[in-house]
Inverse folding.
């Protein structure tokens, strides 16, 4: 096995190609780069360290197994890894027995593992009005479907979908170079 030091400057997409070729050191390097981010997201969503550990491990194993499917023209490696982990966290939430938590328990602030990611996420969320922010948080952190959000909020399904689409577009715009950074909030 080669030493990892030489991979520190290797682009993520190259590491993904190496991983598809079954180079374990590429997996280790991606884990070194992104495990903290995934643990932070998992902690926010699952709140149970054992579940988070298991799901992050599963996410990296899924990335290892399916690295050949990675398409750099569709997403960055970081985005692909976060997506795999997010889907795994959602599955873990769905597999849990029904346990009701007050919304306040889910909205409790948690310590961010990577301050840069927390700042970027907060910046994107400031582009939203309160109702949009609430929908995005319920969808992303709680894993509710559009239909479930319509039931929870009492809004028509089409309205939920429209507001989420607009919210995500506002977030994208606020993060783009020269973005509006939350000044123009839509409904």
């Amino acid at each position: 096995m080669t030493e990892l030091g030489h991979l520190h400057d290797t682009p993520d997409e190259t590491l993904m190609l190496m991983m598809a070729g079954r180079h374990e050191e590429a997996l280790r390097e991606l884990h070194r780069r992104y495990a903290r981010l995934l643990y932070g997201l998992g902690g926010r969503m699952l709140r149970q360290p054992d579940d988070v550990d298991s799901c992050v491990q599963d996410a990296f194993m899924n990335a290892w197994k399916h690295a050949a499917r990675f398409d750099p023209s569709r997403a960055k490696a970081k985005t692909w890894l976060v997506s795999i982990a997010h889907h795994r966290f959602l599955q873990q939430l769905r597999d849990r027995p029904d346990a009701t938590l007050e919304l306040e328990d889910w909205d409790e602030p948690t310590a961010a593992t990577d301050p840069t990611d927390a700042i970027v996420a907060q910046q994107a969320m400031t582009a939203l009005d309160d109702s949009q922010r609430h929908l995005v948080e319920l969808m992303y952190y709680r894993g509710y479907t559009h239909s479930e959000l319509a039931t929870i909020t009492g809004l028509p399904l089409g309205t939920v979908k429209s507001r989420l689409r607009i919210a995500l577009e506002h977030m994208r715009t606020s993060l783009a170079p020269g973005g509006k950074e939350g000044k123009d909030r839509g409904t």
